[in-house]
């Protein structure tokens, strides 16, 4: 019985982190053989659009963001740029005052990003709205590349790509974040080609204005929830890698862990709120992708990793394969621990980035669960420290 549980646990973990990538790639190829690409986007589709940049005490970087936004290749008469600075108490007015063409929305109440976005939408009168974070820079054709997909009536949301800029001397967490997002981008691309991407990242995301709905102010992952609610209404989420937002990696391991725990707490909150929205009965394809890409990773796999290690210990006398797997696990976790120790001493070995980041990511899921159960994860803005 222990052996059955052990191998089932390994199968689930393997499927979650590697197997799903293989399965979804094969499904995309199979779909391509059966029918042609159903992406009917029109390249010269240039609708009116509003670019909204929520920010909290970002005065030191928003000038660069404004310049970047104004330099995007999109007709000036077709785009309105809005910065919403609710709760900020720095010198943002002085910076934004230099750019009269940029609209400023501000109120002193600090209620968080979700509340700010809800309020900003009351001032949006274009058919499409694009949200982007203040600490990211967009490529020149980002808006054009992202909104072209809305020429297809069944597309309700378009997610851009997040690119983490990694330098040689960056921390293990920062480099690990970069590698993680490369793999995540691959999965999003496959998801989008098969049926629908599973969620969107707030660094760069666009919605049909008519489909946007106000979210509860305590929503932690506003971008993920908004996109999945739109998908639950029967619309597709398209992933567009040629519209990308660039940002530096986390400033330190502690900053990246804090960010990951927040995302994990938000994941638990999102799964609770989406429980009856996305099911195998009302959205079978989306549910398959949602379960495989998000739910398994956000729920049972970290606990299965612990179970696998414990069961492996009790199965050591059952054959050489169990002894070999135990040696492999010990080496992997030892490499993660060494990576952690060296990181704290500012010594970095690239081969240790993956086990270190993998373990940190799974620890964050468990920590996020406890934070969610305690209700201690704030939805108000907390600036993440990024490398400058």
Automatic annotation (TrEMBL):
SUPFAM superfamilies recorded: Nucleotide-diphospho-sugar transferases
Gene3D superfamilies for the chain: Spore Coat Polysaccharide Biosynthesis Protein SpsA, Chain A
Annotated ranges, domain Glycosyltransferase 2-like: 51-214
Transmembrane segments: 6-28, 295-314, 320-342, 354-373
Keywords: Glycosyltransferase, Membrane, Transferase, Transmembrane, Transmembrane helix
Source organism, top-level taxon: Bacteria
GO terms of molecular function: glycosyltransferase activity
CDD domains membership: CESA_like_1 (cd06439)
Alphabetical list of InterPro entries matching this protein: Glyco_trans_2-like (IPR001173), Nucleotide-diphossugar_trans (IPR029044)
Membership in a protein family: Belongs to the glycosyltransferase 2 family.
Protein name: Glycosyl transferase family 2
């Amino acid at each position: 019985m222990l052996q059955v549980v052990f191998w089932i646990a390994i199968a689930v973990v393997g499927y979650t982190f590697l197997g799903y990538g293989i399965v979804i790639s094969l499904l995309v190829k199979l779909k391509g053989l059966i029918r042609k690409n159903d992406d009917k986007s029109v390249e010269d589709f240039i609708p009116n659009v509003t670019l909204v940049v929520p920010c909290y005490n970002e005065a030191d970087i928003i000038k660069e963001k404004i310049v970047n936004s104004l330099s995007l290749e999109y007709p000036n008469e077709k785009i309105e740029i809005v910065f919403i600075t609710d709760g900020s108490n720095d010198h943002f007015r002085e910076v934004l005052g230099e750019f009269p063409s940029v609209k400023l929305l501000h109120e002193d109440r600090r209620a968080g990003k979700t509340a700010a976005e809800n309020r900003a939408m009351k001032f949006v009168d274009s058919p499409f709205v694009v949200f982007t974070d203040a600490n990211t820079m967009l490529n020149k054709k980002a808006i054009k590349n992202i909104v072209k997909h809305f020429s297809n009536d069944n597309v309700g949301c378009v997610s851009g790509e997040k690119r983490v800029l990694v330098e040689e001397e960056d921390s293990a967490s920062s480099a690990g974040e970069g590698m993680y997002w490369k793999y995540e981008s691959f999965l999003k691309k496959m998801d989008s080609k098969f049926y629908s991407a599973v969620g969107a990242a707030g660094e760069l995301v666009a919605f049909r204005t008519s489909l946007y709905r106000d979210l509860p102010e305590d929503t932690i992952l506003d971008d993920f929830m908004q996109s999945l609610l739109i998908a639950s209404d029967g619309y597709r989420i398209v992933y567009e890698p040629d519209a990308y937002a660039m940002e530096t990696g986390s400033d330190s391991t502690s900053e990246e862990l804090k960010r990951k725990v927040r995302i994990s707490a938000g994941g638990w909150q999102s799964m609770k709120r989406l429980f009856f929205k996305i099911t195998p009965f009302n959205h079978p394809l989306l549910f398959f992708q949602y379960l495989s890409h998000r739910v398994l990773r956000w729920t049972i796999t970290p606990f299965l990793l612990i179970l696998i290690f414990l069961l492996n210990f009790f199965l050591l006398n059952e054959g050489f394969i169990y002894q070999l797997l135990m040696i492999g696990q010990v080496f992997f976790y030892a490499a993660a621990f060494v990576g952690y120790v060296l990181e704290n001493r500012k010594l970095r070995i690239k081969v240790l980035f993956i086990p270190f980041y993998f373990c940190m990511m799974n620890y964050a899921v468990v920590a996020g669960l406890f934070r969610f159960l305690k209700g201690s994860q704030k939805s108000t803005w907390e600036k993440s420290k990024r490398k400058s």
